[in-house]
Structure formats: structure tokens, C-alpha cells
Amino acid sequence: MKIKATAEDRMIAFYRTISLSLTSFMFLMVPAGPSVIYKSLLIIVLFLFAQVFTFYYRRLRARPRVLMLVISIELAGIIVLTLFTGGYDSPFKLYVLSPVLIAAGSLSFYFVWSLLLGYFGIVAALCYFLPGSAGKSFSEILLTNGNMFLALALAVIVMQMVNGIKRQREEANARTNDTMEHIKSLYHIVETSSQHDFMNIGQVITDYVVKLTRLEKALFWFAKKSGEPAPESRQTGWQHEEERFLFMELEKHEHEWRLQREPVFKSLPGLGDFLLMPVRMSTRFVGMIGVRLESSEGLEGRRWYIQQLMFLSELSAIILERHELGVIENRLIITNEQNRIADEMHDSVSQSLFGIVYATHSLKQSWRKMSEGELEEQIELIHDSATKVAKELRITIYSLSSKKSGGPSWLGMVRSHLKSLSRLNDVEIELKITGDDFSLPYPYHKALFRIISEATGNAIRHGAASRVDVELSLKPKWIRLSIIDDGVGFDTDLIWTESEDNTGGLGMKNMQYLAQSLGGDFQLSSSENAGTRILISIPVGVAELKNA
């Protein structure tokens, strides 16, 4: 497999080439020693070996033990080269900085300093026995090369400091990217949730708290709310029998929580140390979101947890407030629509029906006294009135039906969503639909939309797909959905394992849960560099029977 060279690999290769070129040039300029032809051949061999070692350094950066061995071999070669090209006076003694800097940038602190001190000792000891060192003490030899040893030590210290800063930045970037992905997924799940799902919003958020903080236990305690039912308090990580005790302890401090506006560290008897953050909407106190802290956590780690909980607290408050406003708005819409329909029925249909009833009653009383022509005329009048009422009812029904009135339908919303997704991400999304969704109950609409949205979003966001094919078959008794992409794919065994460990795969578990909650079957197949295929079959009516 070809390893793509990074900017760091290119910089290392450039430095090694320049340093070897300079030391080789100095070696050529020394008048003493072998002939120029011999020196030139030696330099050519050195450049070939340098290319080989550079190649293996790039290949072995993920295998530290083997990398240690290769660096040690190159260092030994440089020591031998130094001894046979002048000892103390060899220009190649400075080239040792190349493998040492690579070790300082990739390997452990102890290995680097062991390598450097070993080099100092071996060079000093071997050079001591060279003919040119006769009469010099060991301390004199160390002092003679002290500047070189000091320069090497300082270079290693600087390199390790730079590498430490780089590692911290990479970890911070990776953690930030991971956090943003989780938050986007969380917001997407909550955005498409229904009233039934919303009652379990605490469980969704606590699962994400565990994923974001990488702690084992989290909670979302909701304060009691008068009137309408509130979402249920939820936890992640505790045993079922511990849950009741946990929330009872939190309820004991309800008055304290209602006054709290900043994150608080609290020790709960028998449960451990907690970091808790109040969740407040603009109109009321909602509850507390929190994690149980590990005893080994330092100050920096706790600051990170505070940042995560503050963000999730604000996000939760926005989501809850938005949901409540949406509920109120829907009620107002329904009330206004009911009033409008009542007014229309009263002003038109009701009056016309009253006229028909009155005319029918009159005809019943007087039809024996009427001539045949008068009777036919009266029946025709009642017929015209009934036809008019039927027409007015049809108009009212059409105004209520999105299918009949030409308003936005569920399938239209699916098409619009995928079209926007395709345009925003420059991805080809092909949607094929057979059948009609008009008689499909709302829970199926909601679940299918969430599955389609989640699967296509994953294909683009994680799979880097350039094409996604969505095929939906709607039949009176069965729904079949297939979503196929040409993305990078993944190991399906790994995704389920990560999901169990709370490290990934939550989107797939959500789709599986949605399909199974309707009595359906969820099938996932994928492999690396071969795309992903999701097949779902849902029997219509099974969910209603289960909930009956």
C-alpha cells in the first residue's frame, strides 16, 4: 500500500538531504584522507542509504518498536562512518542529528535520551582509542566535543517541546472535530423527533454527554412541571436499580438547583462526585445535566467537562424551548383552523342543510295536496340544494387535504430535502418512489424521513460518497426502502462494537431502532472502499397492533 507523504515527511526528507549534502561537501573539502574519487563513491552510497532510511521512516511511523530498531541501525552506521572518516575531525559526526531528531519527534522521551547519551558515550570511548587521541584524557576528549554534545542535547529538547505542542494541538483539534460531529448528529436527531420521541430527549442527551466527555456515567434530571407532562429524567451508565436512588438524591436538592446558575461540583452520598449544570429556558428552570467525575481527573480535564456541559445545557434549553413554542404554535394553528372550518360550516353548509331539512319537512306535510308538476319542482329544488351542499363540503375537504389541494405533501418534503442536500454538498442523489403515501399513518412518515435523512447524511458526511441512490416502495401492506452509496464504506462489525462502547455508530443504532419500533427489519452491509447498502422492510399496521 502506498503511503502518502505528509508535509512533515517532506520537511524531514528535505532536512536530511540538505544536512547530508553539507556534511558531504565538508568531507570533500578536507585535503587529508582518501582520494576524491573514493570520497565521491562513499557520498553516493551514503545518499542511497539516506533515501532508504527516509522511506522506511515514513512507512514505520505507526510502528514505534520497529522504528526504534531502524533508527538505532542508522545511528550505529553513522558512528562507524564517523570513526572511519576522521573520528573527532569527521564532519559526519553532526549528521547524527538526523536520526536523533526523528526519534525526538516520533518516539518516547526515554528512548530519545537513552539514544543520545549512548551516542555520546560510544563516540567518546571509541575516539579515545584512536591514534590521534594519544596523550589526551577522557575528560579532555569530552571537553573538546562538548559544544557538539551540547548542541545535540539542545536540539533534542527543542524538538521534544515542539512535538509536545504539536501533539496537544492535534489532540485538541481531533477532540473539537469529534465534538462538533456529535453535536451535529444530536441536533439532527432532536430536530426530526416527534412528540413521542421528545419525551425521551433526556436519554438522547445523556448518551451524547457520555460520548463527548468519555466518562462512564451521565444524567439529565428534569424538575417537576405542573400541568403538561415533562420529559422523563434519564441516565446513562448506572444500573436500573440505582436509577431511582440517583434521582431521589437529586430531588432532595431541588430548591438548591433552582437557585443555581453556574456549574456546581457536588458530592452525593453513595454515588460519588458530580459536575452538574443547570438547564434554564427563558421562562423557567428545566433541570440539571451532569456527569460523575473520576477521581483521577485533573483541573484541565474538569475545565473541558464544564465547557461541554455548558454547551449542551444551552443547546438543551434551546431545543426544549423550541419544542414548546412549536407545540403552542401547532395548537394555535389547529384552533384557528377549527374556528375557520366551524365558521365556513355554519355560514354555508349548515344553513344549506337547514334549508334542505325544512324543505323536506314541508314536502312531507303537503305533497298529497300538490300536483305532479309542483311535486317535481319541489324535489328538483331539494336536489339542487343538496348538490350545492355537497360541492361546498368538497371544497372544504380539498382545502384540508394537501394531496387534493396541491399543498406540500410528505413525499414532496422528502424530495425537497434530498434536493437541498444534493445541491449543498455537490452530491448526486437519485430518488425513486413507487406507490402512494396518502394513507400511511404519521409514525411511518416520521420514521422514514428520519431514516432517509440520517442515512444520506452519513453517506455524505462520513462516507464521502459522490452518489446516493434512494428507492422507496410504498404498498398497502409493506414498505421497502433501500439506500445505497458509493462512499468509502466501513467495517460493520467495528461500527456495532463501537456503538456498544459508546464511541460511535449511534446513527446506525437509531435507524435500526426506528425500523424495529415499527415491526420492521433493518439490514446493513458495507466494507471498506465498497460503499454502504441499507435495506429496510416495514409491514404496515404492525406498529398499531403492538400499541393497541
TrEMBL record:
The keyword NAD does not apply. It is found in: Cell membrane; Cytoplasm. Its cofactor is [4Fe-4S] cluster. It is a multi-pass membrane protein. It catalyses: ATP + protein L-histidine = ADP + protein N-phospho-L-histidine. Gene3D superfamilies: 1.20.5.1930, Histidine kinase-like ATPase, C-terminal domain (3.30.565.10). One of its GO terms (molecular function) is kinase activity. The keyword Nucleotide-binding applies. It comes from the Bacteria. Residues 448-542 form the Histidine kinase domain. Its EC number is 2.7.13.3. The chain crosses the membrane at residues 12-30, 36-57, 66-88, 108-130, 142-162. SMART domains: HATPase_c. Keywords: 4Fe-4S, ATP-binding, Cell membrane, Cytoplasm, Iron, Iron-sulfur, Kinase, Membrane, Metal-binding, Nucleotide-binding, Transferase, Transmembrane, Transmembrane helix, Two-component regulatory system. InterPro entries: HATPase_C_sf, HATPase_dom, His_kinase_dom, Sensor_HK_TwoCompSys, Sig_transdc_His_kin-like_C, Sig_transdc_His_kin_sub3_dim/P. It is an enzyme of class 2 (transferase). It holds the Pfam family HisKA_3. Member of the two-component regulatory system NreB/NreC involved in the control of dissimilatory nitrate/nitrite reduction in response to oxygen. NreB functions as a direct oxygen sensor histidine kinase which is autophosphorylated, in the absence of oxygen, probably at the conserved histidine residue, and transfers its phosphate group probably to a conserved aspartate residue of NreC. NreB/NreC activates the expression of the nitrate (narGHJI) and nitrite (nir) reductase operons, as well as the putative nitrate transporter gene narT. This is Oxygen sensor histidine kinase NreB. The lineage of its organism: Bacteria, Bacillati, Bacillota, Bacilli, Bacillales.
